[in-house]
Amino acid sequence: MAKKTKQDKPKVVYYDDNSTIADMSNLPRAQKKNPNAPPRSSFKAKLKTYFSAVKLMLLPMCVVLFVLAVLFLILMLAAR
Fold it and tell me: What is the pLDDT of residue 52?
């Protein structure tokens, strides 16, 4: 009886950027220690990002609300 050869699985390579799960590198105290840290984003940039994300989700949200309203009306008419 011949032995079955075990096929090697491809080895997964994980790349570590040396950041922790709770990355605290953008705190003002940490910037003194690490001058190469990226600058903090401004409030205006955060607002711009937020509103661009809301604009993207506006149409899907309206579709979901419309479907829920139609289902509610169907169930209300069926309950009569």
Answer: 95
Q: Which residues contact 41 (CB under 8 A, 6 or more apart)?
A: none
Let me know the angle formed at the C-alpha of 63 by 60 and 64, rounded to the nearest 5 degrees. Answer: 90
Distances (CA, A) of 65 to 62, 68, 69, 70, 72: 5, 5, 6, 9, 10
Question: Given this model, what pLDDT does residue 75 score?
Answer: 96
Closest CA to 29 of 18, 17, 40: 40
> For 11-39, what is each residue's pLDDT tens digit?
877 776 665 566 666 666 655 666 676 77
